[in-house]
Amino acid sequence: MNRPQLKKIAELAYRTMFRQAPDLCEIQETFYGWVVFLASNKGRVVVKFSREIGRLAKEVEGLERLAKVLPCKVPEVLFFGREDGYSYIVLEWVEGVSAHQLPTDDKAIAAFRESYLNILLSLHEQQAPQGFEVGSGEYVPSFLDAFEQWMEPVCRYVLSSGSPFSKELKASFTSLWEHKSELLNPMSQHSSLIHDDCHLGNVLFDPKTYQVSAVLDPCDVGFKHREMDLFHLYDVRPELELVEHYCQQHPLDDGFEARRWFFSLWDDAKHSRNMGWYDEAWLQDKVDKYQRFFS
């Protein structure tokens, strides 16, 4: 993606909205693309571009679904555009500080943790009586069956001759796939609406109260299983012990210690398939940690 061209497109979108040029125009690279922050005395917006075809449409749908149920701010999608071959979305600019910058004092941590866990618990209480969502309006009652439908294309990618995965990692993912029923069948068969990328880098907080001010950047929102959200909480600031405190209010089924790494590995494989990302040492380290809990 051409950085100067993306800034130009974002500035054009801003001019279309506010009839003037922005005083601020800052662009940042993200895992899936680019984000441009624009502001003037007329207003502030965020413009997002994605490298993955179809990702922006998924984000729009996910934000709209989350906005209906979350007791905190979710950015509103102002419009969906396309210019010079690039699709983009324009979002409202929401106030707050990224939660990965949360202060380390006990008061801040306790206030934020209570606020965010209440939000996640509220989200996960949203359930579909039909079961787990595998497509638009399609559900299956079995989590194992749903997982197979979600991840079978990812497994094919990992094991294909064209994937970057090493022979050793392909063998590890083959074993993961073969043992999935042992890991997943003991789980609760109650679905939950999930954010699907709820680590603290996608959360903002109020620097005065340390309460959550907004939740951002969902991935594949849908009625899945709450554990597919919870493993993300270890990704950023694990010392906050969010999962441990979550479990005090909603205990998890036995075996989560292994499933945490199982879900994380398949999530990484999904991102590899989507974006071509690959980190051999990173993945092998997770395999090693998974194997400590599952043998």
Automatic annotation (TrEMBL):
Domain Aminoglycoside phosphotransferase: 36-246
Ribonucleoprotein listed as a keyword: no
Source organism of this protein record: Photobacterium sanctipauli
Alphabetized CDD domains for the sequence: APH_ChoK_like (cd05120)
PANTHER family to which the protein is assigned, alphabetical: AMINOGLYCOSIDE PHOSPHOTRANSFERASE-RELATED-RELATED
GO molecular function: transferase activity
Pfam families, A to Z: APH (PF01636)
Protein origin, superkingdom: Bacteria
Protein name: Phosphotransferase
Annotated InterPro entries: AGP_Transferase, Aminoglycoside_PTrfase, Kinase-like_dom_sf
Transferase listed as a keyword: yes
Sorted UniProt keywords: Transferase
